[in-house]
Amino acid sequence: MNTPLRTLYFALLVRPVVNLFLGLNVRRRENLPSHGPAVIVANHNSHLDTMVLMSLVPLKQLAITRPVAAADYFLKSKPLAWFAQQIIGIVPLRRAPAKSAEGHHPLDGCFNALEAGNILIIFPEGSRGQPEVLSNFKSGVAHLAEKYPDLPVIPVFMHGLGKSLPKGEALLVPFICDIFIGNSFTWQGNRQQFLKTLNAEMERLATEGNFPTWE
Amino acid sequence: MMIFDTPAFVLWFLAGLYALLVAASLSIRVLRPRMKEKDYRELYLRVRSWWIMITIFSLAIALSRKTSLAFFGLISFLALKEYFSIIPTRRADRRVLFWAYLCIPLQYVWAAQGRYGMFLVFIPVYAFLLLPLRMIIIGETKDFLRGISIIHWGLMTTVFSISHVAFLLVLPEHNALGSGVGLVLYLVFLTQFNDVAQFIWGKSMGRRKILPKVSPNKTWAGFIGGVVTTTLLGGLLGPLLTPMGWRMALLAGTIIGIGGFIGDVTISALKRDLQIKDTGNMLPGHGGILDRIDSLTYTAPLFFHFIYFFYYC
User: Fold this and answer.
1) How far apart are CA B278 and CA B240, in angstroms?
2) Which residues touch B104 (CB under 8 Å, ≥6 apart)?
3) pLDDT band at residue B4 using 50, 70 and 90 as cut-offs
4) What's the rounded Cα separation, in Å, for the pair B90 and A213?
5) Residue B31 CB: number of other CB atoms within 10 A?
């Protein structure tokens, strides 16, 4: 990561745009982790999701906060790979691990980052999908929790960014973004139970808001 | 520093606002033992937000005319964004909303340049005629009328109405006192004062509800007490801040008192329709920005055209 450029990018570009152009309505900011290792799990509707979550952490925590992102999408071209790795500071995830990759676990990058005390941002829906619709969670985050049973997992539900910048659109239209931060929880003994808890937490956070229809 | 170009009466007036703030902070602290903790907390947040709002307002007004114009443009943007975020919009209208946002810089450019005709017709005529065209090009006809009406109502309230405050700033200088800044201070202060006065009169003597279906907390005593207080204060401040004599200023105060009430309950009706309590959370203790400028959406155009008709035509 290019730390000075990254800090400038988030402090001078992302934060002003996110706070003034969009505007955030954050519930229970105090639930966010104050130190790593930890995992922030959020729903995914827009490229803005990462920018907004990165704007919630204090600037001095920026260096240890890193979004997990698909290698096949973000590392496909040189300029995008530079931007994703140096500026956003992604932890690349190889979604379809090639059998030949000498015993590398697809989550190796995440393991290393957590062991270095980082806070990871994970979108377990895998794809941005239909704007403002919650789809099923993939099990990667459960693998992390299984390996580190004390790892705090903080669920975050966001609404509005899928309206501002949905998948396939390049024009940003300002809407206020609602953010609901849940209580942190840890490994639940087995994967199914863990994913059930995560799903239930997200559903609960989603029903907390009274969102206008958007059809 | 531009601040030294600001007329002395403006600085005195702003100093007066800070004196009021100090008085408000002191009185809630003195009354604290006699209040429920929850009520105190609410009042504390409200007063703290006033400190921030008045500081930003004072800086915007005192620095230069350009910062004042930009400040009101920003208010329009924040209010329109809040409005679009709380109402049900159509997915197909994303790009139409973008064009609606673009009306804000244009409307404030007309105001800054003092182009009175264009300022008056841009939103009611051009935006009104052209935004439906953008919608028709996208081609979604289901709920077309609802889609286009809510966008136009939002533009009229948050952009067209509020931009009248900005146009006050560019009205030609009438006499030593009558520069636009004085008119803005008069309008904005009395509008906000009227809200507080109606609240206090209603709390202390209100019994008979005035609009039970729309705003169950509003009473006749609050309305009448507020209008009378605002009228009297308007008569007092008019000769100090504006080209008006005390008689015309009493009339202007009445217009602000009644107009402010209507603006307030209009946004109340909107919130009741949407089943929300506040329009947002930008201003702790107040709610959203629309909760704060609801009265101004009525008083700004009403006061502007009153003063324009009698003093600037």
Assistant:
1) 36
2) B73, B76, B77, B80, B159
3) low
4) 8
5) 12
What are φ and ψ of residue B87, in 5° steps? -95, 155
- pLDDT of B299 reads 98
Closest residue in A to B273 (Cα–Cα): A212
Share above pLDDT 70 across residues of chain A, in percent, rounded to a whole number: 96
* Of A17-26, A99-108, B117-126, B127-136, the least confident: A99-108
* Percent share of chain A, pLDDT over 90: 64
Is B81 close to A160, i.e. CB distance below 8 A?
Answer: no
DSSP B29-47: HHHGGGS-HHHHHHHHHHH
3-state secondary structure chain A: CCHHHHHHHHHHHHHHHHHHHHCEEEECHHHCCCCCCEEEEECCCCCHHHHHHHHHCCHHHHHHEEEEEEHHHHCCCHHHHHHHHHHHCCEEECCCCCCCCCCCCCCHHHHHHHHCCCEEEECCCCCCCCCCCCCCCCCHHHHHHHHCCCCCEEEEEEECHHHHCCCCCCCCCCCCEEEEECCCECCCCCHHHHHHHHHHHHHHHHHHCCCCCEC
Give the contacts of B117 (CB within 8 A, at least 6 positions apart). Answer: none
**B85 vs A169, A175, A213: nearest CB:** A175
Q: What is the DSSP string of B94-113?
A: HHHHHHHHHHHHHHHHHHHT
> Which pTM does this prediction carry?
0.92
Answer whether residue A99 shows pLDDT above 60: no
Comparing CA positions, the residue from B258, B272, B271 lying closest to residue B303 is B258
Q: What is the pLDDT of residue B79?
A: 97
Contact B88 A213 (CB under 8 A): yes
User: Could you tell me if A25 lies within 8 Å of chain B, comparing CB atoms?
Assistant: yes
Please answer yes or no on whether A212 and B88 come within 8 Å at the CB atom: yes
Q: Cβ of A210 under 8 Å from any chain B Cβ?
A: yes
B258-274 burial by CB neighbour count: b if 16+ within 10 A, else e? Answer: bbbbebbbbbbebbeee
Measured at the alpha carbon of residue B151, what is the angle toward residues B148 and B154, in degrees to the nearest 5?
A: 145
How many Å separate Cα A130 from the centre of its chain?
17
Among the partner residues B95, B276, B282, nearest to A171 by beta-carbon distance? B95
What ipTM is given for this predicted complex?
0.89
Q: How confident is the model at residue A131 (pLDDT cuts 50, 70, 90)?
A: confident
Q: Return the pLDDT at B1.
A: 44
Cα torsion for B271, B277, B280, B283, to the nearest 10°?
Answer: 120
How do residues B56-102 score in pLDDT, each as one tens digit? 999 999 888 899 999 999 999 999 999 999 999 999 999 999 999 99
